[in-house]
Design a protein that fits this description.
β4 and β5 form a beta hairpin. The protein has 338 residues and is mainly alpha-helical. It has helices at residues 12-30, 59-66, 91-105, 109-112, 128-133, 155-173, 210-230, 237-250, 264-278, 281-296, 299-311, 316-333, and strands at 81-87, 117-118, 121-122, 190-193, 198-205.
């Protein structure tokens, strides 16, 4: 199930209010079936044999994917993410934002990870959703690349070297027209959505409530302004890829090659500093939540810690159920978990 805006929100507060109204409305419907929503990036107990590929509207798209990829795996199934769309006015601005976002998303998983548990066990990464996401299309590696997008200099280069490359690879694999030369097939962590004149950020795990998703969006927007104002030289793509993989695996304590610090937490503190300096009044009201995540741990780390504490007194699965039952309540009332 997807909650999606029909047009850009004029303020973070309107974003939060509108989306929470959607959550509340749908929860009223689900209540009749003794069901509820669960935030975070993955369901912690779901087994692959308990779910299936989407069989409803747009199923033809998944049927095309199924001809090429093994879709019976995490990364296709049991995946929940928050997509943030950021508009651009022209090609110059679009290219600038794309390249700055390539820098930002290398470190965002250390803040936004919320998927510590998979199939009833503690996963090997802080962000297990992204761990699976990075390999779910390994039959055609050009679709996801290194998740961190390559720096580009023009729309024509992007269309030729990114969209054109994976489309040709899809042709060789026998894909139908549904997937060919489509911008949304690109599975990098940031992609151009030319159809809506926006850049789409895809690396963010769904959080525990709408307020936390809004806080992430405010942090990203304000940090982008700061990076534009500073006009600093960006790290190489290889450095970003290495730091991204470390952040996915080890979170805020991961070692990084970025000269802004020794750990992902150091880099995120720097990004928070420039975000705070460049946030508008509306955005500033939400930045405390991200600052708290940077200093005290992302949602994934907090979930894992609380599950392990409870597991000392009860069965591990029961500990998972207890913590995630609390998360369900926080989603319903739109209250951060920590």
């Amino acid at each position: 199930m997807e909650l999606k805006a029909n047009s850009p929100f004029k303020s973070p507060q309107l974003f939060e209010e509108t989306m929470q109204n959607g959550v509340t409305t749908l929860l009223g419907i689900l209540e009749k079936y003794n069901a509820s929503f669960l935030g975070t990036g993955m369901h912690p107990l779901l087994k692959l044999n308990e779910t299936c590929v989407w069989p409803h509207r747009h199923r033809k798209i998944y049927e095309e994917y199924g001809k090429i990829f093994n879709m019976n795996q995490h990364g296709w199934l049991n995946i929940q993410s928050f997509h943030l769309n950021l508009p651009y006015r022209n090609e110059k601005e679009g290219i600038l934002l794309h390249n700055l976002l390539a820098y930002l998303i290398a470190y965002l998983p250390s803040i936004s990870a919320s998927s510590p548990i998979c199939e009833g066990t503690v996963g090997s990464s802080v962000d297990n959703r992204l761990r699976f996401y990075s390999v779910n299309q390994q039959e055609i590696p050009s679709i996801v690349g290194d998740v961190v997008p390559e720096y580009v200099t023009s729309f024509s280069q992007y269309k030729r070297e990114v969209i054109g490359k994976y489309s040709q690879d899809l042709i060789r694999a026998g894909a139908g027209k549904t997937l060919l030369f489509k911008e949304w097939v690109n599975s990098r962590g940031v992609i151009f959505r030319f159809d809506r004149t926006a850049l789409e950020v895809r690396v963010l795990d769904e959080q525990e409530c709408i307020k936390s998703d809004v806080a992430l969006s405010c942090f990203i927007r304000a940090a982008l302004r700061g990076l534009i104002a500073n006009q600093e030289e960006l790290p190489s793509h290889d450095i970003l890829v290495g730091d991204f993989n470390s952040a996915v695996s080890e979170g805020l304590n991961s070692r990084v090659l970025n000269p802004k610090g020794k750990t992902a937490r150091d880099v995120c503190r720097y990004l928070m500093k420039i975000a705070s300096e460049n946030a508008n009044e509306d955005e500033r009201q939400y930045l405390w939540l991200i600052r708290n995540r940077i200093e005290n741990g992302c949602l994934s780390e907090i979930i894992r810690e609380r599950v392990m504490q409870k597991a000392q007194r009860t069965d591990f699965v029961e500990a998972v159920r207890s913590v995630y039952s609390s998360l369900i309540k926080h989603l319903a009332v739109n209250e951060p978990f920590s």
